Structure formats: structure tokens, C-alpha cells
Amino acid sequence: MRVTASAPAKVILFGEHFVVYGEPALVMAVERRVYVSTEPRTDCKIYIRADGIGASGYYSGEALRTFEAEMGGREAQDRLQPIKVVIEHALRLSKKKVGLNVIVKSAIPVAAGLGSSAAVAVATAAAVGRVLGLELSREEVYQIAYEAEKVIHGTPSGIDPAISTYGGTLIYRRGEGVKPLTLEVEVPLVIGNTGLSRSTGDLVARVRRLKDRYPSIVEPILSVGGKIVAEAIMALKAGDLEALGNLMDINHGLLSAVGVSSGPLERLVYAARRAGALGAKLTGAGGGGCMVALTATGDLDKVARAIEEAGGETLTATRAKEGVRIEEQR
Ligand code: MEV
């Protein structure tokens, strides 16, 4: 049997980083997907190929400890580790001793704040789970992917695997899970990619260091972040895009304050604002990666052009209603 599953990218509209400390966040799935195809092998090896991260290779032997790189040299093993963790988890649940080929194809830029690693983990859990005959619920797919995220960066909030699993627009709070939000209004967004990749784990650790050193200053910033999300939900419900834009600007200021913005991100954010965006902020972990601008409906092209002239690559952010899904089974 061969199974292909897919999972979408995401854009965090409000609340990244602060969500790690229990504040709410608002996140939307976008129509850029990772596709993971898998089939059993006749031997007991696990072959993983992920062109997007330039890595492929074979795991074999006792507890799949032996690794032989095919592409990506010495670093391949580290890069493939989160995918391997998902596969091992599913194999343990199935109690089967089979080999698998797992091929990852992604249309999501890597390490750019759009949740590509979580989407890979979610689609892998769904595809491998199905091929092994596990009847995984969405919640179980989410839990397996969340475990893999913990391997990549120590204290993930769980927001990335949640949006890739469930799709749509969600209010997410650590420990409370997801609350779907039905949007009555169009939210025209342009995503701008600085093209600089960065590590989510390092950026999360940077905020933690600042918080540990200056708790009386950073903790109030986190709680203001939570209040912004509450206001943003009201603005969305009222269709008040101008208020939403203001709140994005304020949220960006708070993220700069905790050290996760950067020169390239600021350039794109200010280019978007100068071109008439209603609001603009970094999205995801920051450092490099992507920013997102909210525009009036007629201004999408103008704002996108300004972001490109400032050196960014733009992506359209069509909302993805569906989260993880099985694309093909034969
Ligand atoms: C990364 O997409 C979002 C962060 O808040 C980390 C997390 O929530 O795990 C920076």
C-alpha cells in the first residue's frame, strides 16, 4: 500500500513567543502544503528523503541506530531526526517490525516562520499511521507531531503542529488546545520572506534568557501580548481591519522589544507600512524568516511590490480551511 498525506503551512497573526508562556495566540493555516508519501519496504530499513532540506538516507539495525547518508553528508542525520522520531513513534504504536520508504515534498519555505517542520511532522504521522494500519484520530496525529517538535526545540508551545493538523483559523492556548474561529470577513494578507533562515529553538531560548534576567519587565510584555490577542479577536469579529492593523503594529513592537526582530525584518515591515498596509509584523519565530502585512482589499499588489523592492520574496496567503488530510491511498 502507498499513502500520501498533506498538511498546510501557517501564519501566526498574533501571539508568537508569548504563547510559549501560556498566553493565547491567533493563527491561520495557509494553502501551501507538505506532501509525504510512504510505502512498506521488503527489508526492515527506514529510508527518508526530504529534498527541501537536502537530506536523505537509510536507518537500519538495532533500534534503527545505524544511519547511512545518501544526500546531505554528515548533517543529514540531524536534519532527518524529527521525521525519524515521528516514524519510530508510529512503529511503536503499531507493534510492527517493517521497513518504510518515506518521501517528503514541500512547497513551504524551510526555517522561515511558516511552520514547515511541523507540517512535515503532521503529514508524516498521518501517512505512516495509515500505512501501518493505525486508525489515528486528529488528536493522536497532533500529539505525535508535537513530540517531534520537542526534539527540534526544547519548549514548543504546540501551536505549529496544532494549526497544521486542524487547519482553518484557531485561537490556541498551551494546555487548553484549539478553539476554531469562524471568519466572516476577508483578511487580505501579504507574506514577505527575508530569505534568512534561523532556528526557532535559539530564538525561543533568547526570549527565555531575557525573561529570566528581567522578569519584572518581560512578564508584563507577555501579558500585554495576551491582551492584544483578545482585542484582535473582537476586531476580527467586528470586521474592523483598521483596528486589526494597529494591533499588528503594536504586537510587532513587543516582539522587537524581546529581541526577535532583525534589520531585514524591519525593512520589510516598514516598506509594507509605507506602501499603505493597515499593519505589519514579523510572523513565527522571527530573527529572519517572514513578516506579514494586512492590507485593504485593493492594496495587495501595491504592498507586495513594496516588500519585493525592499528585498523580500512575497507569497500569497490563501486561507487553508483543511488541515492534515490523506491525499491518496492505493
Ligand atoms: C513558532 O512558529 C512559534 C513560536 O511561538 C514557538 C512556539 O510557539 O513553539 C516562536
Structural description of this entry:
The protein has 330 residues and is of the alpha+beta class. Helix content is 41%, strand content 26%. It has nine helices and 13 strands. It has helices spanning 76-94, 116-131, 138-152, 159-166, 200-213, 215-238, 241-257, 263-274, 300-309; strands at residues 3-14, 25-41, 46-50, 55-60, 66-71, 99-106, 169-173, 177-180, 189-193, 279-283, 290-294, 313-316, 325-329. The strands form two sheets. Strands 1, 2, 3, 4, 5, 6, 7, 8 and 13 form a nine-stranded mixed sheet that branches. The chain has a four-stranded antiparallel sheet with strand order 10-11-9-12. Strand 4 (55-60) and strand 5 form a beta hairpin. Helix 2 crosses helix 4 (159-166) and helix 3 runs antiparallel to helix 4. It is globular. The model has no long low-confidence stretch (mean pLDDT 96). Bound molecules: (R)-mevalonate. (R)-mevalonate binds at residues 12, 16-17, 19-20, 113, 115, 156-157, 159-160, 200, 204, 284-285. (R)-mevalonate (MEV) binds next to helix 4 and helix 5.
Secondary structure category:
alpha+beta
Order of helices and strands: EEEEEHEHHHEEEHHHHEEHEE
- What is the domain tally? 2
Beta fraction = 25-35%
Overall body shape: globular
What's the gyration radius in Å?
Answer: 20 Å
Portion of residues in helices?
40-55%
- CATH fold assignment of the largest domain: Ribosomal Protein S5, domain 2
Distance between the ends? 6 Å
How can the largest sheet be summarized? Answer: 9 strands, mixed
